[in-house]
Amino acid sequence: MKRIVNHIVLLSLLAFVSCREDANRYEVEPLLDPYLQMFLQEGSKRGMNFDVKNDGLLMEFTDLDGLTIGLCTYQRPLLIQIDKDYWQETTQYEDQENLRQNVVFHELGHGLLNRSHDNRYLENYEWKTIMCGGDDVDGRDWSVNFNGYRKDYYLDELFNMRTPAPEWSKKATFDGEKGSLIKNLDMNRSYNGKDELGNSYLMRDYVYTITSANKQSNNIISILSELVTEDFYFEVVMKAYMTEDISTTGVCVLYDYDNNQKYNPQKRDRQHPINDGCNYIAVREQSIGDQFYMINTNCFLPVMEVLIRDVYKHDDYNKYAISRHDGELFFYINDQLIFRNDYQADVPCLSFGVILPAWGRVDITSVELYTLGSTLRSGKEAQAVGPREGDLIQPIKISSKKLKDYRK
Known about the structure:
The chain is α+β, with helices and mostly antiparallel strands. It has helices at about 1-25, 35-45, 50-55, 85-90, 95-115, 150-160; strands spanning about 25-30, 55-60, 70-75, 80-85, 180-185, 190-195, 200-205, 205-210, 220-230, 230-240, 250-255, 275-285, 290-295, 305, 320-325, 330-335, 335-340, 350-355, 360-370, 385, 395-400. It has two domains: about 20-170, Collagenase (Catalytic Domain), CATH 3.40.390; about 180-400, Jelly Rolls, CATH 2.60.120. About 20% of the residues lie in helices and about 30% in strands. The model is unreliable at about 1-5, about 10-20, about 260-275 and about 375-380 (pLDDT under 50).
């Protein structure tokens, strides 16, 4: 009996040691390790330290179901999984690192900080935290502008939920500072024509109408060509007719990406050498509330999405504006600040335009461009121009992927 009892005790000890070793297993995919180290460093800066090697941690790529891009499983050891297709899809886009940090930090926020999903808004309707996720809230996706000075706030908030709301989240109205008018669209000039995609252009009775021939996607349409290297204010008054669920409308700034040695996933042809880098704000009409997107065409996902009521007017004219101040873009609708952003705002601008909704049209009554700089047009009189075919840069298609929802 004694010998049997000793064997039982020995087997129990071996099982205990084996379970403990398994619970403390530490295996991290090499491509995910730099992001884990960044998380640990950011935590250490804020007085939070984690002994993941001794406590145990598994981080791996896998195929996650549906639109899920990250998953945290509470087990011993803790398991963090990142969707390998999403990781690959973000490759080479301007927001690649921001998106990858966001999803990894979000899942580690669950696992190491014991944080659950938090879908509260800031005052300007941006997400309060990168821990947003889970079930739909007002039909929005989980795009967070995890970039620039915003990243500092979101990291502070990740490790300390009591972090006060940042200054950039406050609501504001346009201060009226437009600067000096340098160019506007002459609404007296008659123009008829079509571009290579079949979109039609008609100037009549002080209204410039652009009608879409594309049922599948929205188009970015250039309407004023002007090289601007300093601060500016661009304004369009227009009414949009949107007929499809994917239809959006808004205003945009096209800029010189290649000359700034930035990545550009789309190519221009010999006839249209100007690059297609672009920042734009778009509105999509929905019964649950109108959604506004701020998108950089060289990014994989929208920089942000906000839901704002009582700003945009249905079936009526709206004033859209983009202003650049000190390396930051400010987006307005009807003089209400919708979003401010420092993402890719300091590159030279080549052209200014509108978003033509899929299978819809826009009626434009005013287009104006002002400079806030002191050297660009010093002493030069403003120029009124009619729409010219040479100014109409080849329309850029907006992929529906830009509005795609991802889960975390």
